[in-house]
Amino acid sequence: MQVYLPIAEVSVNAFLLLGLGGIVGILSGMFGVGGGFLMTPLLFFIGIPPVVAVATEANQIVASSFSGVLAHFRRRTVDIKMGMVLQVGGLIGAALGVVVFNYLKSLGQVDLLVTLCYVVFLGVVGTLMFIESLNAIFKSKRTGGAPAPRRQRGWVHALPFKMRFRTSGLYISVIPPIMVGIAVGILAAIMGVGGGFIMVPAMIYILGMPTKVVVGTSLFQIILVTAFTTMLHATTNYTVDIVLAVLLLVGGVIGAQIGTRIGVYLKAEQLRILLALMVMLVCVKLGLDLLLMPNELYSLGAAGGH
Amino acid sequence: MSIPLLRAAALVLCLLAGLPSAGLAVEEEVVLGLSQDRVAITADFDGSEILIFGAVKREAPIPQGPPLEVIVAVSGPNSPVTVRRKAKRMGIWVNTDSVLVDSAPSFYAIATSAPFQEVISDTEDLRYRISIARAIRSVGAAMNITNAQDFADAVVRIRENEGLYSLRENTVAVDQQTLFRSAIDMPADLTEGHYTARIFLTRAGKVVSSFETDIDVRKVGLERFLYSLSREQPFLYGLMSLAIAIAAGWSASAAFRLLRNN
User: Fold this and answer.
1) Total structural domains within chain A
2) Is A62 in Cβ contact with B246 (below 8 Å)?
3) Is A303 within a domain?
4) ipTM of the complex
5) Number of Cβ within a 10 Å radius of residue B250
6) Which of A242, A244, A262, A290 to mutate to test binding with chain B, by most B CBs within 10 Å of its CB?
7) What is the number of other CB atoms lying within 10 angstroms of the CB of residue A8?
8) Which chain A residues are Cβ-neighbours of B98 within 8 angstroms?
9) Is the pTM of the predicted complex or chain greater than 0.80?
10) How far is CA B88 from CA B91, B95, B96, B207, in A?
């Protein structure tokens, strides 16, 4: 069944979009990532204009994250206080990101920026997470399942403005969470992603939060940042395609529910290593696109960038 | 000079002018029919086929010589297009040069009754801007860009691959040099606007008559509503998108909880 998208002005198969939404939704629920880092490139691939894909994906992430976070609220694995602090940074970052996005769109370099961001961030995060989770798995085998001692007293603990985060069992400065929030907000606006793939490792390795609250808190924070991004794209670029969003999110929210349940049965290290592998796979694919000579050297855009 | 006298003089002039060159005045005229003069883009729009049929009206018998040929050209609204070219910089492929093509139709389909080169001469094509390459206008290439023509060619190539531009020879059926019909496929990825259908009758590569009519392509119903809302009330549109997202997220969560509890 073909559906004509009113904003993207292309006709696409509805079941294809529902299916994509479902698969990405499952991953979203399992890993606590919005799934945007997979969905946005997939949307480019099926012919949705990049500016529409980025803006609409932000809207879709709101839905899948909201669906996911409700399950985490019931299990009390959301650190609301930490989420709010991250949020402050996130909103600043999202506003900055949309400004940068619009500027580069007028230069015709927005595709490059988006792809480069993906390659760099996915590459670094994926590799680090992969190595770390492999180590964790080996260690837990050697020591007979005893948890690895948490590293404490890093540079994070030397900063002022300390605050107590009960759910996470932390007493740290608010500066690192705000910085993490800003970084994630910028990425949300530029890449059409929730930033979960940055947020989850940053929470674990920089902030030192326990893995069980990381996923719920990340989802919680992502909702507001992506909602803000959606509004910014809708009012400045008019590129949020509501029909596309609905098709993706119907598949997405159902997938997220299934994913959250699958996630319960997997160990934290296993979850992390799977996520790392997937992140690296997307990175390699996008990297090759930049390095290999494209089939079509030319591309068309609306005049004036807007 | 009185008005009737002026008329008479004009008539004589016309006759005089008409006599020596028999084919100059419009002897053969197009009478056209379209299966539809408007295309409605609905939510399940999946392309459309427009039947174009017509007859040649003439007062005199069919002229001797080469047979009548017909060209049908349907064109979408024109707009400027920025064409960017990638080049390898520091090991990766990035957009470097860009050229503004002043005007290119969003859609362009030509159907002819014989191979294009036989139907119309190059000079006539130049005059009426019929072929795909001629339908694109590019004059504003920057001085530092060599081979600007490559950029115009790229527009044609990319849009041909997307099915937006097409030249289909031998797809206009002509009967008895009088009746003709053809079908133009409109793809699913149409943009809105005023489309024009142009019909040319040619003999020996020369245009003997032409006719032009409008086809209105518009989004209707929900598509129209959403598109207008996103442009006129972007804030409301954004809030609506978010409300739908939150509602969908919540209902999926609630539905799955019910499923599990039962």
Assistant:
1) 1
2) yes
3) no
4) 0.74
5) 15
6) A242
7) 21
8) 108
9) no
10) 6, 9, 9, 47
